[in-house]
């Protein structure tokens, strides 16, 4: 960290390096579970949001509220496991963390490119089968957007290595 850190940078660094939630992500299996739960909560949240907005469902709107807190906790656990790899400003990271961040973003980019290809093929196949592409456009684009936004977090959560202290205790 050769650049001068601002007060905000130091505070965010301190928040991202707190250890109170460490039992949630102490092992690789737990981190995989947290990422899987986050993916499931995200899918449920997007489905409920579409149900509330597109379908006009009041139940779906209430479901959004019920899903919000667990989703935030899972997001916080991923951020804590990665020690803020994707949330901290670049100047707050050391060279190893910068390289890891670049690797995570590159892998996530490849995954979301594949997802975009699959989504485009699915909408194209649906259209060729006689369906209306317009009816699928919004939900598919929303799902791909959310995946594009969160895939770096999921990849980072899955790539985190056990800390040296944790490996010695195991």
Key words describing this protein structure:
single chain, 170 residues, mainly alpha, globular
How do you describe this structure in short?
77% of the residues lie in helices and 0% in strands. The protein is built from 7 helices and no strands.
**Which value, in Å, is the CA radius of gyration?**
19 Å
Give the amount of beta strand, in percent: under 5%
Helix content: over 70%
Mean pLDDT across residues: 86
Tell me the total number of β-strands. 0
**Helix and strand succession?**
HHHHHHH
Number of helices: 7
- Structural class of the secondary elements? mainly alpha
How would a crystallographer describe the biggest sheet? none
| CA-CA gap between termini | 32 Å
Give the SSE layout.
Layout: H1 7-16, H2 22-25, H3 28-53, H4 58-81, H5 95-128, H6 133-159, H7 164-169
Helix pairs in contact: 3-4, 3-6, 4-6, 5-6
Structure write-up:
The chain is built from seven helices and no strands. The chain has helices at residues 7-16, 22-25, 28-53, 58-81, 95-128, 133-159, 164-169. The protein is globular and about 55 Å long. Mean pLDDT is 86; it is low at 166-170.
């Amino acid at each position: 960290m050769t650049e001068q850190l601002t007060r905000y940078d130091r505070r965010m660094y301190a928040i991202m390096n707190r250890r109170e939630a460490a039992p949630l992500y102490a092992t690789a299996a737990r981190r995989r579970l947290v990422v899987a739960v986050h993916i499931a909560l995200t899918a449920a949240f997007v489905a409920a949001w579409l149900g509330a907005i597109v379908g006009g469902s009041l139940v779906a709107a209430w479901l959004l509220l019920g899903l919000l807190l667990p989703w935030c906790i899972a997001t916080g656990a991923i951020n804590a496991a990665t020690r803020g790899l994707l949330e901290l400003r670049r100047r707050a990271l050391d060279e190893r963390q910068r390289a890891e961040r670049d690797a995570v973003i590159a892998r996530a980019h490849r995954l979301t490119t594949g997802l975009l290809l699959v989504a485009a093929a699915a909408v194209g196949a649906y259209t060729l089968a006689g369906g209306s592409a317009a009816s699928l456009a919004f939900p598919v684009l929303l799902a791909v957007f959310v995946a594009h936004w969160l895939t770096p977090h999921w990849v980072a959560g899955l790539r985190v290595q056990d800390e040296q202290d944790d490996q010695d205790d195991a």
